[in-house]
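User: Mind token order:
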Amino acid sequence: MKSFKSIGFILASLAAAAALPAAPAFAICTAQGLDLMRNLNGAWRGKGAVTPIGGSPEFVSCRISYAMAAADVINQVIACAGTDYKLEASSQVTCDGNRLEGWFEERAGHSTGKVSGTISGNHLFIEAESASFTGNFKVTFKNENDHLVAITQADHASGRQVPVASIKLTR
């Protein structure tokens, strides 16, 4: 079974180097950011499609859980599987105003990296970077029981971001 590294964060991604060293003191999230993080708390399930660069589309099923570690820190654990792909990852993100920073680890592919992004409206915009993956995650909150994760990956051959995954998650 192949590992699919590009879902490594989500939120991770959301998703995506080793864990960041001791983080500097962060200001707390905006009220809007805290509401979005609180709404993530708990277990989620979903399905979607994964299309690796140069590969064929594959349907995957995912389980994701989020837990608030502090007022402005959220932990995520994700497991997705399809016929040929498997993903097991975790991440931790800290919020400072409307900015996000953190790290992720993708176990099946032995990949670690950093993530950064912003919270705006009902969206999280996240950039993930590791030795084996560079990409973007857009998390759109439809309501407190429904969110969508869209992932693009840097295609170094074409010099552009390529859509590689779309997953709908519900409680």
